[in-house]
Amino acid sequence: MKIRTAIEHDLQAIIAMLADDKLGSQRENYQNPLPSAYSQAFKIIDADPHQELMVVEKENAEIIGTMQLSFIQYLTYQGGIRAQIEAVRIRKDHRGVGLGKIMFEWAIERAKQKGAHLIQLTTDKKRPEALRFYEKLGFVASHEGMKLHF
């Protein structure tokens, strides 16, 4: 198993994982071929040096996990960098075997390599099992997050 930067060819597997749960099935449009919006978004992410879309690949090149890291430069913390982890997914048939922990350990190390002083995430309140998982990894619900959908 290895964690590597996603390539456009990986999009079908990535979107399949994003769409394969109760919440994702309501917001993703998984079909074959994929809508062009996914390819356009991938190209923007791929061109941005502050974005890293990653996949977890088995020895046979099968994609079984994904996550996106964003590195945000800001003025507070004396011009610090924070890492934001998003869209973490593991294919259903590979859950519960420790892959999530491996992915987060990798992400934390990557954030440190990029000079981030913290890594943060949000999780939907409709996913209590995810919240428990993040807490076991040492994440603390220290802030209240808010969103305004358009």
CATH superfamily: Gcn5-related N-acetyltransferase (GNAT)
- Tell me the strand order in the biggest sheet: 1-2-3-4-5
Largest sheet entry:
5 strands, mixed
Instruction: Please state the second-level CATH architecture.
Output: 3-Layer(aba) Sandwich
Structural class: alpha+beta
- Indicate the percent of residues in helices: 25-40%
Q: DSSP strand (E) fraction?
A: 15-25%
First-last Cα distance: 39 Å
* Fold-level CATH name: Aminopeptidase
Supply the number of helical segments. Answer: 6
Integer tally of domains: 1
CATH class category: Alpha Beta
How many β strands by DSSP?
Answer: 5
Mean pLDDT: 95
State the shape. globular
Tell me what you see in this structure:
This protein has a single domain, classed as Aminopeptidase, CATH 3.40.630. Helix content is 35%, strand content 24%. It is built from six helices and five strands, in the order E-H-H-H-E-E-H-E-H-E-H. Strands 1-2-3-4-5 form a five-stranded mixed β-sheet, with helices on both faces. The radius of gyration is 16 Å and the shape is globular. The N and C termini lie far apart (39 Å). The mean pLDDT is 95.
Q: Summary?
A:
The chain has 150 residues and is an alpha+beta fold. Helix content is 35%, strand content 24%.
